[in-house]
Amino acid sequence: MSAPAGTGHPVLEIRGLRVDYGRGSQAVHAVIDTDLTLRRGEVVGLAGESGSGKSTLAYGATRLLRQPGVIAGGNVIFRPDADRPDLGIDILDASPGDLRSMRWRDVALVFQSAMNSLNPVLSVRSQLTDTLAAHLPHTSKTERVERAAELLKLVGISPDRLTSYPHELSGGMKQRVMIAMALALDPQVVIMDEPTTALDVVTQRQILQQIIELRDRLAFSVLFITHDLSLLLEMADTIAIMYAGRIVESAPAEQLFRAPRHPYSAALLNSFPSLHGERKVMSGIPGSPPDLRSVPAGCAFQPRCPYALPRCAVEVPPLSEPAVRTTSHRVVACWLQEEAEQPAALAAPEPEARARRLVSSAPIPAPEPFGGPL
Amino acid sequence: MTASTSTPALPASDRPRGTPVLEARGLTKLFRIRSPRERGKNRFRATVHAVEDVDLVLETGRVTAVVGESGSGKTTLARMLAQLIKPTSGQILLDGKPVSGRRLHAYRTKVQMVFQDPFASLNPVHNVRYHLSRPVRIHHRAHGKAAVNAAVDALLSRVRLEPPRNFTDKLPHELSGGQRQRVAIARALAAGPTILLADEPVSMLDVSIRLGVLNLLGELRDVEGLAILYVTHDIASARYFADTMTVMYAGRVVESGPSLEVTDHPSHPYTQLLLDAAPDPERPGPQVIEARGSAPSLIAPPSGCRFHPRCPHAMPICSEQQPAQETVGEGHVAACWLHHADFSLGTDSPRN
Description:
The complex is a heterodimer of chains A (374) and B (352). Chain A has 374 residues and is α/β, with parallel strands linked by helices.
């Protein structure tokens, strides 16, 4: 198993990234001064509602953004060598040639909808071998087909599916093919943008297990983007929460779940009904996410925040360490942290740090007998 | 959710809470698929068994959830209840009387539907007033311009879009997702229904506003006594919001009962799988579900119990005979051979 959250060397560092849509005074600021660090072997979850800028952040950081998207500033440092942590390449400054070879070999992506990401008129084999041929031109055709078969086996698909076309595969299998394709060149970083959103809950669970299993085996790092915070709480080491283009809180998953410090994180956690215990009335969050064309002044969450202070409407809170001192790496952007007293909902004591794992390294236990004695 | 004590003002609440208003008996829908190459008799070669032999009761002042994955037949069931598609066999009873396909207008006055995607279900070139005033007129809820406008305002207030005058002239693109879905709910209410069929009403909305819309539907149930069908794939929201729950798998009902009872004591292996697969941060340890394949083809569904190829507890009989609905608790039934008297210790056996 990889190193616990927050201790490994960074492999991808996003510093002050700004992404706009459009230019000049009409520009919509989709990602504003965002910092995010992905360490080796870590799963970082990026959660937010639609329009919060989470996908834009990923596409900006990999320079896959299309017009009218513009990277307005910042650095994205990729550190290719685990043994030389000071060596870094700025993806945003890389030449087109460097970028082309770096993409997929070092940083791979799994896109949102697997249904549309595969070419419907090409077989799985040709799509997998195309990737290999583009990046490893010296390999022979036989080698590439062998590698493609190996990749399918890796994600739990029988290699005889190589000749299948996308329409012959189920949604879950298509998503597995996409993951296999992302892993084709042993990347160090895999960015996954809502990889399970269109899938049924059982399939989703199987895919997530697969991702974590592969991560444990191949030791890549994952930036996992989703709107479903409850999913991240189970699989991510660190969770960053975005709202209106900014990261408002970032903390180890367990800490975020037990002791959120930002009112938005707390409210978001309170938006997922539980599967256990008494049925409680939950309120969700009043209002709706802001339109990025007219973001409220100061803290963007302030109009929906139950604890808003006068200064929240004026100044943007910086992302800094919370007032309640912690042992873990966590930051929060909220003026409440400078107040003497915190609302009870935001002052829960922090739990002991422990890694949450979807998949344990222990052998899978036999299923409990069902329905009592049979 | 606390029951409100406010004075009932609508026809829905004339009857005591829990009166059955809409019933499905043995509802079945088979879709015949046309083969593009064949002509004549052989044109319909395959049959999709979308919904088979489903019984369901909607009661006043109660929310009934239908939970299932895609392809389980939950939307087909809702559409049959809305009479948007005709059942292949089975009966629908409204207030105890069988409905025929003829008196559709009268039926729609009582039974209305809310669709999944508020971005698609509202006409982008018409404003909110248009969307709400048409059903008000068509179902004769008000006559004359002033009365219709007053009815539109009242509808917007009922779905908490206040003050109404801020919304009546808005076009759908000027509204947020949550507001759009509220307009869609108001449009369904405009006919003055006693029964609301909501097909995944919150799945297209942002997480932070889902509960607001569910709570609104909950209020309509509590205050106005509406009978609500809540079709969803999200078992956690069904647990939160619904009074009773019906779990469907591959076109059949596998388990139904009071929603807390079903989620706290799932008695069908499929319900257990669904609960194990749902994201749950409270779960004490790592949860590992075994990869047990995926939902079956509905063109050639498995024999016997449709879940048996994926079931970890499958017995020989499961592939041979369709299990009957066995009572496993108060008002709680599961269609599983494990609960049959011949295979278990009967209904007294401990369930986990």
